[in-house]
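Notes to self after the Tuesday call (sharing in case useful).
The group wants a holo model before anyone commits to mutagenesis around the pocket. I volunteered. Ligand is sodium ion. Logging inputs and output together so the record is complete.
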Amino acid sequence: MAGVILRRLSLGFALAGGAIVLVLIAMSLVSLVGRKLFSAPIPGDIEVLQMAIAVAVTAFLPLCEMTDNHIRVDLVAGFLPAPVNRALLAIGHLLLAAAAGLMGWRTFLLMQNSQDYGSTSTMLGVPLWWPQGLMVPSLALLALCGLYRAAREIRS
Amino acid sequence: DDSVTLRIEHFLPANSNAQQNVIEPWCEDMKAASDGRIQCEIYPSMQLGGTPGQLADMARNGVVDVVWTALGYSAGRFPRSEALELPFVLPAGGETASRIIWDYSTTYAKDDFKDYKVLAVYSDGGGTLHTARKAVRDLDDMKGLRVRASTRLASRFLTSVGATPVSMPPSQIADTLSKGVIDGALAVWEVVPPTKLDETTFHHTTTGPDQATTTVTTLAMLMNQQRYQSLPDDLKKIVDEYSGEALTVRFGKAWDQAIDQVRNRIAGDDAHTIITLDDAAYQAMLDASQSVVDDWVASDDGGLDRQALFDGLRKTVKEYTPELAR
Amino acid sequence: MSGLETGLLVLAVLMGLLALRVHVGIGMFLAGILCYVLVNHGNLNALLFTINNLVYARVSDYDLAVIPLFVLMGQFAIHGGLSRALFRAASAFIGHWRGGLAMSAAGACAGFGAICGSSLATAATMSQVALPELEKHHYPNKLAAGTIAAGGTLGILIPPSVPLIVYAVLTQESIGKLFVAAIIPGLVAMLGYLIVIRLVAMRTMRDAPRIPKAEWGARLRALAEVSPVLVVFLVVIFGIYGGWANLTEAASIGAGACGLFAVARGGMRGDGLVKSLIGTAEASAMIYLVVIGADLLNSGLALSRMPVELANWVQASGMAPFAVLLSILVIYLLLGCVMDSLSMILLTVPIFYPIVVGLPFFDLTQTEISIWFGIIALMVVEIGLITPPMGMNLFIVQKFSERTSLGAVSRGIVPFLGADLVRITLLVAVPALSLMLLSL
Ligand code: NA
Ligand code: NA
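Result:
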């Protein structure tokens, strides 16, 4: 049950991130054409790209953990008995969950800090806590996916 | 053993003017004055992580002890200091403008810096308009020009005089200029060699000696407050002696030197022309850009009395440079 | 502890964590934490606030942002059938030669590499497209698998290339220049592989039946099918290098064009789009998790002063520059046996780069050394993709070919490794191969 929910959520996050990338592509093309033909680039397009890609890329992370595709060095896997391998993998996923939790917590604090100090993007003045805040759920979901994978290794 | 090592981070390479001509000698001086008890470790090119916009925060949080940064990169964090970047307010050049900035920053804008031990706040010398093909002599020449700018207020200034501001990383300026993607860049002379503007632009429009400069980028060296407080009293005294107005002027002079060097080289090169705005053209640009000042003063962001800040800045400028036309 | 000792201890711990199957990005993240703890004597303040900035600083990096765009471009090309069209076009021209189908597969890999930044995607799509054909025409297992595994590396050897983007970000080098510098070495790589296939085929396929020669009409039709690849490649590379589009715009044009092609000619529909997006999400996520972890490790190492001390030590030791370079290349080859290319670039460039650019090579300027070393580093980490026991491309090819064992792939790759070593020697000895196009 938890697995189904997490899988759907991480898939939804990944597709939302993908949609952002598609929009960014469209924006870049419009900006290029505008600059070429009408001498009118989208002002601050670089900033928009940076903020949006930050949200999109973070949203990609959980799905990759659900499908267990994050990069690992599986050099010793072949030499170890299955229970040891499972234990190692469980520890690995737990460490990933812990790291993701730490990053999510600290990114949340970054968001609060940006909010308190009114940090904005340089050209457009977009509040930085918007993109930073949108990254937090993805990192939290990544932590949950790590816990789920660890539990699966332990149970099997 | 009560010696200290200050960790200093900034966003430029190790061979930049800031590091080579000011930060390193400054460290050497403090080291000598303290018999080696104050030392520096300098981390150029953001080696300790983060983005240039996060530098000020990194000093405030104690990730590093000292940062050198541009205040405009942390937009919204230094609202009172934004006034310094308004068009046609400060004189061109490093030293005098830096004295004015230091004065303003320690009086009217001092609340911007209450979380820091401020070591220096200074001017980059003010923007010159470098254009590839079209010589800009008056307001009309600005129309439709695509110009690279690095700060929000520089962009607003460009818009107000009819140009189109474009933002891009410094590494792309030379390429895009040589291919005609942009027509020019608004930048101080000091950055001309590292961004290769001397190879890609041939007309350089500046303001005259008694005219205010287009817009400046405010640079600053900030120290973590607790770190400073934790120093032994005699080391605090040494830091104080070499910082503040002394370091501000030191930066200003180093920038003046760099600016003169580049400007003289360009002036002596037949491929380049340096254009100084005449009084009429200057007045026309000043009038056109008045809207930027008005908008800034009228904004109610952060609940500041912006009129008082702007008046305070004008008053300070008048004290140092009574001859400046505005 | 000196910086050097701290750094070496942390790297040893990292290797231990990776051997115990901790994710590479997480292992680097933890090693970075250890570095901060050691250098700051347990004071966590700087570490915690560094982590505050860590993720946002990396995922919002402007230059790295083109990675998802280049990945998506490759995904569209796959789902639009461009990889299949490339293989068909190549075999229309050279398929009838001895070993010609395998050579066509290598050529198609190179063509696909021109619009795809990742060797994983190249190896995976070419495994699906070309392996069944090679098996159908009785190509020996070892040759077929070796061709695709080695050909897959052309995905990063020929620009656009994700490891080169990351190298550029780490060294503040121009991505456009690195891409242009990689063109000739990439073509040399393809040529080397073609020669290897030819030699192997002469030896093992002397009596094998050949496929008939294609008519010129069929050849031209096949060529027309793949013309978008050439257009997209030229637009992307010369858009960036020529300066009329910035990197993001060039990548957007490429992705947009491949997307339109996939819909118009490849018949891509909703589910193809969803698959492309999911593929992009997973590949980008893999890259960014390592990038984030490496960032903390690298700032931790910078804080320990290990890279500076190491560079000083090398300069003071009076070792000949080429001996230093050779040692670095050997370390790369050894690491490559167990690590993937991107993790290697992220781990080693901050340590080796300051050493290399501080040494004199021929009479190259510092910028030239920086670009030349970038290309050489790319070439050696690429070898890691095809060296046993841990070679990503070997695994991928084996996954798509039921009748090929990992042992067969590993043996099949050996002649291609020979070609790689020859090429690296050539590139080290003749920097002009990398720098020539830049001086045009
Ligand atoms: Na490629
Ligand atoms: Na390998």
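Two things stood out.
The first helix of chain C runs from residue 3 to 19.
Chain C has a mean pLDDT of 93.
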